[in-house]
Amino acid sequence: MNSVPTSPLTLAQVQADLASQGYSWGRVNPTEYHAWKKELPGLVVSYSSLKEFAECPFAYKYNLDAGVKKDSAALRLGSRVDSLCLTPDLFEQQYRLATKKVQLKKDGTPYADGRQDPDQKAEWERLYQEEGIEHLDAEEMEQVHDIADSLLTLMEAENLRLGETCTSQLAMFVRLTEVAGVPLDTPITLCACLDIAPLDGRPTLYDAKTTSRSVRSATALQYVIRDMHYDLQAAVYTACWNVCARQEAEFAFLFVETAAQPYMAREVTLDESELNKAKSDMAHHLIMLAKAEHAQNYGTCVLPSISYQSY
Fold first, then answer.
1. What are the backbone dihedrals phi and psi of residue 170, each rounded to the nearest 5 degrees, phi first?
2. d(CA 143, CA 139)
3. Of 15, 161, 251, 260, which has the fewest Cβ atoms less than 10 A away?
């Protein structure tokens, strides 16, 4: 296996590596990684964009051209937890604790919805817009730390210690001209930012996931993986790892729930047959995406008919 690079990767290095050997990998600042994808030439595809294409090619192309940036409270919470657990040095730079004043009624009690004091609202919004820094109130900060503690406990149970047995936020870029022996109509740069990569030789890759569903229910977790196409993510990450590390790998998710205390955590390993099926699906989607890009034909907003069955 190629030794896992732990030194910071730069955009210039990625561009040089892709030009010379067709792949590049190294530890990154996740914010920079997402910015780099826009700087690379040609068709650049990650798990999230491939998932969107698989669900609806038209919506994928529309959102790409419109520059739609996905954002939600759940995504922001997941990013905060990831940062605290996997890049604690960056967490200190990106997040600040700020006091959020609430509006009071005439009797001096706060409104039930916790609405904000209008005199402080403009200042709070300015803080949120401060480049590269997100300000959290005390309740939000406490929640992030509590969820992160559960995830770190799971990592410790799996002998995943940053800088000792594993490293975090490992970016991988692979230039593809064919997939599964089929030439692509348009070359694709497949990229992934792996949450946890082993340093001790074990062939298991890990991705941390926050979920509003209870991890105590195996059925709920199976639904989440199926609904979010996380198996496709595992296929993308292991495919990139196979090229960069020259090693076949297994894949596991580290789930931690976020809906309410106690924030339970659980590892979910991906069965070999499921991973192989996901790799086959990934190859199909990449081939179809290259065809669509070459022809500049992503279909229409009309989706195929489906049949409804009541259970």
1. -95, 115
2. 6
3. 260
